[in-house]
Design brief:
The chain is built from 9 helices and 19 strands. By secondary structure, it is of the alpha+beta class. It has 3 domains: 96 residues, RNA polymerase II/Efflux pump adaptor protein, barrel-sandwich hybrid domain (OB fold (Dihydrolipoamide Acetyltransferase, E2P)), CATH 2.40.50.100; 47 residues, E3-binding domain (Dihydrolipoamide Transferase, Irregular), CATH 4.10.320.10; 218 residues, Chloramphenicol Acetyltransferase (2-Layer Sandwich), CATH 3.30.559.10. The strands form 5 sheets. Strands 10-19-18-17-13-16 form a 6-stranded mixed β-sheet, covered by helices on one side. A 5-stranded antiparallel β-sheet has the order 5-4-2-7-9, with no helix packed on it. The longest helix is centred in the middle third of the chain and has 16 residues.
C-alpha cells in the first residue's frame, strides 16, 4: 500500500519548510531510514529520512517548493501502484498559501519585448501602468480582464502575486570566478534582513569601553586551566550582557506590530558566521547560567552550527542578539541589522590599545567598540543609552556581573 510522505515538523516553531534537494529520483528504490530529501527551515538545512520502504512513485513537491507542515511532498509504495487518489486528496486539502517559488512566472514562455511604440498601443489603465512600472512588471505579458482586453489594476496586482511578467535581468557574459544561486540560506538571510532594514526605525549608539577589567578577570580565571576549558572573552561579555538585560530589560523585548513584549527570560542569540551565510543559535536563560556553562555552550553551539547540526529550536526564541566582528581585527564600529521580532542587537568590534584618560592621566588601555542598534518604534534613545551605560559599568567592573 502506498505511503504518503508529508512535510515533517522539524521544530516547535516550524510552520513551513522549503525543499532544497531531493536525494532520490522518481522510480528509485528507497529504504526506511535512508536520507530522502533536504528541507530548509529557519536557515537550517535538515536531512530527512524516509519513513517508508519501497519505490519513490511520485515527487509532489519539487525543488524550491515552500510548503506548510503536513503537506504532501512525495509518495512511496510498490512499483506500478496507482497514487492518483492520494495526490488528489492532498491537493484538495492543501491551503491556498502553499506555493512554490520555482513555479512563479512559469505560466508559459515570455513574449518578446515590445518597442515603446508598441507598448503605447496596449490598452491599460493609468493606475495599472503606474503599478506595473513601480514593480518591474512587463505588462505586455498580462492578459487584460477589462473591456476590450484592457489591463486593470487588479490584473497587475494578480500578476505581481503570481510572478507573471517580471522583467528579466539582462544577461552579463563577462567571466566570473563563481556563480552563487540566490536561494536557500542566502535567500532566507537576505529576505529577512531586507525586511528588517526597511521596517525598523533603527538608531545606533556607538561607544568605546575599557576592557582592562575583563581581560584581567579572564587571566585569573584561566590560571592553571586546560586550554579546552579556558574562559573566553566572548563568554564573559555574554554574561555581562545577560546581567544588564536582567537588571534593565528595556531592550530585552519583541515587537509584533500590535504589541510590545518585555521578556522575563533572557535568551541571547549569538551570530555565527558560516562559509555561505549566518545563523544565530540561542543561549537560553543566560542570566541564570554560570560562566563556565555559558563558555561551554557557546563553543558547542558554534561548533555544531558550522557542521549544520543545530535543531530549529536551538535557533529560535532569542530575546536579544550579539554579533561579534572583533576577532577579524578590522572593525571598530558597525551597524548590525536587528533580527526581528527582537528590538535590539549589540555589535562588538575589535579591542585595540589606545590612549585614554584614567584618573586625570593619559594611559594606554585596551578599548573595544560597541554598537547598540535598537528599534526606535519600541525603545527611545534615552532608555537605550541608560542600558548601554549599565553594560559599560558591568564590563569595566566585571566582578559586579556575578552580584
Amino acid at each position: 500500500m502506498a505511503t504518503p510522505i508529508t512535510m515533517p515538523k522539524l521544530g516547535l516553531s516550524m510552520k513551513t519548510g522549503t525543499i532544497t534537494k531531493w536525494l532520490k529520483n522518481e522510480g528509485d528504490k528507497v529504504k526506511k531510514g535512508e536520507i530522502l530529501v533536504e528541507i530548509m527551515t529557519e536557515k537550517i538545512t535538515n536531512k530527512v529520512e524516509s519513513k517508508a520502504e519501497g519505490t519513490l512513485l511520485k515527487i509532489v513537491a519539487p525543488k524550491d517548493a515552500v510548503l506548510p507542515v503536513g503537506a504532501l511532498i512525495c509518495v512511496i509504495g510498490e512499483e506500478g501502484e496507482d497514487v492518483a487518489a492520494i495526490i488528489a486528496e492532498a491537493a484538495a486539502k492543501a491551503p491556498a498559501a502553499a506555493k512554490s517559488s520555482a513555479a512563479k512566472g512559469s505560466s508559459g514562455a515570455a513574449r518578446p519585448k515590445l518597442s515603446a511604440e508598441e507598448l503605447d498601443k496596449i490598452k491599460i489603465s493609468p493606475a495599472a501602468r503606474k503599478l506595473a512600472e513601480e514593480n518591474g512588471i512587463d505588462y505586455s505579458q498580462i492578459a487584460g480582464s477589462g473591456p476590450e482586453g484592457r489591463i486593470t489594476r487588479e490584473d497587475v496586482e494578480k500578476a505581481i502575486d503570481e510572478g507573471v511578467g517580471s522583467v528579466e535581468e539582462e544577461t552579463d557574459d563577462r567571466p566570473t570566478i563563481k556563480v552563487i544561486p540566490y536561494e536557500g540560506m542566502r535567500q532566507a538571510i537576505g529576505e529577512n534582513m531586507a525586511k528588517s532594514y526597511t521596517t525598523n526605525a533603527r538608531v545606533t549608539h556607538h561607544v568605546r569601553v575599557d576592557m582592562s577589567g575583563i581581560l584581567e578577570l579572564r587571566k585569573k580565571l584561566n590560571e592553571g586551566v586546560a586550554d579546552k576549558d579556558k574562559i573566553s572573552v566572548t563568554a564573559i561579555l555574554t554574561k555581562a550582557v545577560a546581567r544588564a538585560l536582567e537588571l534593565n530589560p528595556c531592550v530585552n523585548a519583541s515587537f509584533t506590530g500590535s504589541e510590545i513584549k518585555i521578556w522575563q527570560d533572557v535568551n541571547i542569540g549569538m551570530a555565527v558566521a558560516l562559509p555561505d551565510g549566518l545563523i544565530v543559535p540561542v543561549i537560553r536563560d543566560a542570566n541564570k547560567k554560570r560562566l563556565k556553562e555559558i563558555n561551554k555552550e557557546i563553543a558547542d553551539l558554534a561548533k555544531r552550527a558550522r557542521k549544520n547540526k543545530l535543531s530549529v529550536d536551538e535557533m529560535t526564541g532569542a530575546t536579544f542578539t550579539i554579533t561579534n566582528l572583533g576577532g577579524y581585527g578590522s572593525v571598530d564600529f558597525f551597524t548590525p541589522i536587528i533580527n526581528p521580532p527582537e528590538v535590539a542587537i549589540l555589535g562588538v568590534g575589535r579591542t585595540t590599545e589606545q590612549p585614554a584618560v584614567v584618573g586625570g592621566q593619559v594611559a594606554i588601555r585596551p578599548l573595544m567598540g560597541l554598537s547598540l542598534v535598537f528599534d526606535h518604534r519600541v525603545v527611545d534613545g534615552a532608555p537605550a543609552a541608560e542600558w548601554l551605560a549599565l553594560l559599560i559599568k558591568l564590563i569595566e567592573n566585571p566582578t559586579n556581573i556575578f552580584i
